[in-house]
Amino acid sequence: MRSMILLLACLVSSFLVGTASLGAIACSGRSLASSTGAASSGPTGPSSSLDDGGYGGAFPATGAPAADDADVGSAASTESPANGDAEGQDEQDDAGARGNATPDGACAQPLAPGDLRIDELMIASVAGTGDDGEWLEVASTLDCVANLNGVHGECPRGAKVSTFDVTGDVWLPPRGAFVVADSLDPAINHALPGLVVAWFGHPGDVLRNQGSTITISLDGTLIDTITYPALSLAIGTSVAFPSDCDASARGDFTLWKRSTSSWFPGFLGTPNAPNTDVHCP
Known about the structure:
22% strand
């Protein structure tokens, strides 16, 4: 009899301990399906969005999964990958793995000179050195869906050259745009909307305040280039070529204006959106 009483007591004790443990898990406020503090993510990941009103961003090819930030890639720089961003290299390795189908309205010809146009620059997102929030906007001048696969960009930084490459099929809507930034991380690039491509290796301070030349090419053919002079801008304010200016005058930097719209608290610019907040003089 005493043995049976002891056995029953042990069983009751085990049940109470198990119940208490389950109660602690159920009331902890955590969910196995979410991550505390994680950035919200749209159809193409935290640094890109498909909901841009037809301007900016890429969209999935017919019958193919949506491309994410890794698909647009960040690629070969003249700087050693060992000194760069390992995460960026992983993105490069994954680039081009998806989205191979051709969407309706695709351009019949590959990109040619003038089909892409650099039209906005954020050259100083913070004061001093170590600026990781710089970016530039590249807009399509085409009325068809352009494939960015193979697009290569360069910008000299002293004796080095920062580069990016799109190494998979990335489809840009008619008159769409993409942004080239120092980082794909929304916490670093100030939540840039739309399609974002990163310079390889997360070099930072790619766009020099003293002026520089940016080139975009495809298979050795120059698609666009812009040489901007030394610019003195308010920190966190981009300079944009107004949408209502004649495109042939884009090299005249007296026509470029400081942006007045804000896409992120404390920052002025219209990344992956028309430059309608500034006007041609």
